[in-house]
Known about the structure:
- With 326 residues, this protein is α/β, with parallel strands linked by helices.
- The chain has one domain: 3-Layer(aba) Sandwich (UDP-N-acetylmuramoyl-L-alanine:D-glutamate ligase).
- It has eleven helices and 13 strands.
- The strands form two sheets. A nine-stranded mixed beta sheet has the order 5-4-1-8-9-10-11-12-13, sandwiched between helices. A four-stranded mixed beta sheet has the order 3-2-6-7.
- The model has no long low-confidence stretch (mean pLDDT 96).
Amino acid sequence: MSVLIDGIKGNRFAVFGRAGMDMFADPIGTKSEDATQFRADLGGSSANICAGLVKLDSQAALVTTVSDDAVGRFCVNRLQDFGVDTSYVRAIGGEYRNSLAVYESCIEDFQNVIYRNDAADFQVTKADMDAVNYGDFTALITAGTVFAAEPSRSATFRAFEHARNTGLPVIFDIDYRPYSWPSPDVAADVLSRAGDESDLIVGNDEEFGFMAGGIEKGLDKARELAACGKMVIYKMGHEGAITLVDGHETRTGIYPVTAVKPNGAGDSFMAGLLASVAAGCDLRDAVLRGSACASIVVSSAGCAGAMPTTAELEAFLSSHAGPTDT
């Protein structure tokens, strides 16, 4: 476990997965079908994690492919605006397109319309992974969506090999999105393999339940992975989280807020957790700070742009009640 903690404390992360464009109805409370204007910003789980890390004083580089068009360039420009290293972002031509998410800041009957046809990020290759200088980083992070299709599935497992050979810990956000996968059986098999090859696994109760073959088996699956020497964080929404490591289970609560949307919470949690460990917090406090980051994002419009800075996180912690009892 010391390799994992030391890698996180090194605070230089290579992040694998998608960057996309978010379009969200403006102002807050407007349903998408009633909107007369939308705001645009960076989106996509891995890009969000990168933005969240950098805003919390970590270093992050995104490894992905984007469409060679205005939307792809928009995503790269926004990554650079946040301070994310884009050295390993490759533009590709043809009919491939960046993901687009159209949603609203309206928690009741929340709608998120995802466009993922011919997704550019699935076109990452083994050659892209071989070109990364793994010695520049101290930990690898991936979101599960990269495993949903080829060639990015095999390419990311190649990156895992490079990480092991370089001594980098692998951090895996399950991030199961059914619409990206050819079948639930393929997803369960591939995501389980990714979990077996990772050092830290983060997911919610539904995602662990999916890997185990039923939501009621999710915690048992998390315990099984932890028993293999992995650190596991089992998220339960408003009920908080369970951290499983070295034979111990620690329950933590959340910071209640008035949410305006559900998306972006997991990405912000991951960024807050890792940046807090890197800053010297113990694991329990780091999980709580990750939960606070999630609360900040769900109570604001947008995702990448809503990720808190260190000063904003500290201000939130000093002014909000919580965490809830567990």
